[in-house]
């Protein structure tokens, strides 16, 4: 496949980028600087400030400064470089990364699908590959455990939702702390500026960031990479300058011995301060989540040869400055900037904070879109902001919700140290979830030996647990914010998933037998009128109860009847050539078909998608390629019959297409517990009423819509 520049611009997933040239890799690596590393590269604004915000004091021997920098260096090296770049980035799902990508791999390999309408034919998709059939003793044992304990599958889903919700909480805290930290630097030059004005300026910038989301990042993305590059070069150059000017001996802190000395001399206060150190690796999850827009190799090149050394030099220089300027600990980043370049760096820092915010906001839109596809979030309006760049979407409801939450945190806390405490807990929680999922992937998918998986868990899990415990200690001082946000989002996701699953179970239990329909004869007991009738259902087999409910009240239907099931499959993408699966329901003279329309969890149906014509074309193609039966006499008669049936379908389309949707209402049974009644009758009912309607999601024309009301008791 030829790798044209336009192909690169589209950001197609890794499966199409296996043979990229060196130039293309470098191009993608440069582009990734403006998309992936905005959050990670702005961490120096607040890491040292948050680390020394507690009772930890600086002594004359600089042991604390050296110890903190040693922790930053080794944390950055072990977690960001070794864990994420060398290991986690390899666990892609057809080029896609993130929590859901890992979960999707596990679902396919261990058959843990949470989607109820899974079919064997889904496993024949080109993106559904599950590797070699061989099993190790460890992978077989884990699979057997999940099969024997269905509750463990539900626990795994909750665990994944926890990580996802913490990532959403991260998208609230990242813009807040990045913008507030960048803007607060102006107080060094204007000391009389009141804190309220800093908060107001930060809020104005935040409102501006969220207000331009509807235009899409592609309109300004061409300046993101140069700004990120300028920012990283600036802080690394300043870092080298400060190291040489203030304390070249800081280089010795690269030795891990200083970490031991730090904890030995500071004790509990040193342990608590690690909650600030972990902020140095915020953004590593974004690097993994945005893998689908670039190649794994390009991300590794950009991080290993540019981002990593630039940030290490920046942290080293700031530590060197602090070792000789203890009194500037709460203003260390901007104080360490040489006077002649202060304002240029301040301006670039503000733009870098905006880019960092943009990255996590876009990632949140993607997460919510995936959750909707997997029935874990109410349906929301999803808008494509670019017809060229893959994955650029905008969700209005989520955008304004995030903006309100960011403004509330900014105005309510005002203190970047408290926001940092909350931020640290969110970051460490997501990293722990990724580590646990990676251990399962290494066992089930990669089929690694138990000793290898155990070494991975012990090495990285112990480090992250250390940081998590330090962040958990700060729960009363801001750490409660991500917990509250994640629990709220998780409750919404779990209740929605529970409600939709129960509704599907109700549909399965009350579906009409196809044999019963066929026994009624070709007219199926109704008057057949010209046209095509599309009956939407969640079922991939059988006839939905909504159809029986419809014909009971109106015993007439269209000459061509199609049962349409739009479903998601646990793969990231499905090509158009594999989108439709057409089959016939009953004998040919009945004129009944079933169409299963499949989407991946990162596929977003476009509003202008020409669904009606594509569906009819797929049915006609199915009729033309359908093998003949023994009863049919000769090849000519078979060809003639196919032409006649195709003409009949096209004439029916010209007569009109009607869409029949079930307007369902879920209610808990009378015998249900109070908690279940509250969840189903109040929370789920509220979300169902206020979310996007099925007709809007499927882009059904209102003039052709028929809705059939039904009540589901779950």
Automatic annotation (TrEMBL):
Residues 530-712 form the K+ potassium transporter C-terminal domain. Its main location: membrane. The chain crosses the membrane at residues 65-86, 155-177, 197-213, 220-241, 270-289, 301-322, 342-372, 393-413, 425-446, 453-473, 479-496. Keywords: Ion transport, Membrane, Potassium, Potassium transport, Transmembrane, Transmembrane helix, Transport. Residues 28-518 form the K+ potassium transporter integral membrane domain. It is a multi-pass membrane protein. One of its GO terms (molecular function) is potassium ion transmembrane transporter activity. The keyword Transmembrane applies. GO terms for cellular component: plasma membrane. It is found in: Cell membrane; Membrane. It comes from the Eukaryota. Belongs to the HAK/KUP transporter (TC 2.A.72.3) family. Potassium transporter. This is Potassium transporter.
């Amino acid at each position: 496949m030829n790798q044209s520049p336009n192909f690169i611009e589209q950001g197609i997933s890794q499966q199409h980028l296996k043979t990229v040239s060196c130039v293309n890799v470098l191009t993608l690596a440069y582009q990734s600087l403006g998309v992936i590393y905005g959050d990670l590269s702005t961490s120096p604004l607040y890491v040292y400030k948050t680390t020394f915000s507690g009772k930890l004091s600086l002594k004359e021997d600089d042991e604390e400064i050296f110890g903190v920098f040693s922790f930053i260096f080794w944390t950055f090296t072990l977690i960001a470089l070794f864990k994420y770049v060398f290991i986690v980035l390899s666990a892609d799902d057809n080029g896609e990364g993130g929590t859901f990508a890992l979960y999707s791999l596990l679902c396919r390999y261990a058959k843990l699908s949470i989607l109820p309408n899974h079919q064997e034919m889904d496993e024949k998709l080109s993106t559904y590959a599950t590797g070699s059939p061989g099993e190790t003793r460890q992978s077989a044992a884990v699979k057997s455990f999940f099969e024997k304990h269905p509750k463990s599958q539900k626990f795994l889903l909750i665990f994944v939702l926890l990580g996802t919700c913490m990532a959403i909480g991260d998208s609230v805290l990242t813009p807040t702390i990045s913008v507030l930290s960048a803007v607060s630097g102006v107080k060094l030059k204007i000391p009389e500026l009141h804190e309220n004005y800093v908060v107001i300026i930060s809020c104005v910038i935040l409102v501006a960031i969220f207000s331009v989301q509807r235009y899409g990042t592609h309109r300004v993305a061409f300046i993101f990479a140069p700004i990120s590059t300028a920012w990283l070069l600036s802080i690394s150059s300043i870092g080298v300058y400060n190291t040489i000017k203030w304390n070249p001996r800081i280089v010795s802190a690269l030795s891990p011995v200083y970490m031991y000395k730090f904890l030995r001399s500071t004790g509990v206060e040193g342990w608590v301060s690690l909650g600030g150190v972990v902020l140095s690796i915020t953004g590593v999850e974004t690097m993994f989540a945005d893998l689908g827009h670039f190649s794994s190799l390009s991300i590794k090149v950009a991080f290993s040869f540019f981002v990593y050394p630039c940030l290490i030099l920046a942290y080293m220089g700031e530590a060197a400055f602090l070792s000789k300027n203890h009194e500037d600990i709460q203003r260390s980043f901007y104080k360490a900037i040489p006077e002649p370049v202060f304002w240029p760096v301040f301006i670039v820092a503000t733009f870098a904070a905006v880019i960092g915010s943009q990255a996590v906001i876009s990632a949140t839109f993607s997460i919510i879109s995936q959750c909707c596809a997997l029935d874990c979030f109410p349906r929301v309006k999803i808008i494509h902001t670019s017809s060229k760049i893959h994955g650029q979407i905008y969700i209005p409801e989520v955008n304004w919700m995030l903006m309100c939450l960011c403004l509330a945190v900014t105005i309510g806390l005002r203190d970047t140290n408290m926001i940092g405490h909350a931020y640290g807990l969110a970051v460490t929680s997501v990293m722990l979830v990724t580590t646990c999922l990676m251990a399962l992937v290494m066992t089930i998918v990669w089929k690694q030996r138990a000793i290898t998986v155990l070494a991975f868990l012990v090495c990285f899990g112990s480090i992250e647990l250390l940081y998590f415990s330090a962040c958990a200690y700060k729960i009363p001082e801001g750490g409660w914010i991500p917990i509250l946000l994640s629990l709220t989002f998780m409750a919404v996701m779990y209740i929605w998933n529970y409600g939709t699953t129960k509704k599907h179970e109700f549909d399965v239990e009350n579906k009409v037998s196809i044999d019963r329909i066929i026994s009624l004869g070709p007219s199926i007991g109704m008057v057949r009128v010209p046209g095509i009738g599309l009956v939407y259902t969640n079922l991939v087999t059988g006839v939905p109860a909504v159809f029986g409910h419809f014909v009971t009240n109106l015993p007439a239907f269209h000459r061509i009847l199609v049962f349409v099931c739009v479903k998601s499959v646990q793969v990231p993408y499905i090509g158009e050539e594999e989108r439709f699966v057409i089959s016939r329901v009953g004998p040919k003279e009945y004129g009944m078909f079933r169409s299963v329309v499949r989407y991946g969890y990162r596929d977003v149906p476009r509003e202008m998608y020409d669904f009606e014509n594509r569906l009819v074309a797929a049915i006609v193609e199915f009729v033309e390629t359908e093998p003949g039966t023994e009863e049919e006499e000769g090849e000519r008669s078979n060809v003639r019959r196919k032409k006649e049936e195709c003409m009949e379908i096209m004439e029916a389309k010209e007569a009109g297409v009607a869409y029949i949707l079930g307007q369902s209402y879920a209610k808990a049974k009378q015998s249900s517990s109070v908690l279940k009644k509250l969840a189903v009758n109040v929370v789920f009912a509220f979300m169902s009423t206020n979310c996007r309607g099925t007709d809007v999601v499927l882009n059904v024309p209102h003039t052709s819509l028929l809705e059939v009301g039904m009540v589901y008791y779950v």
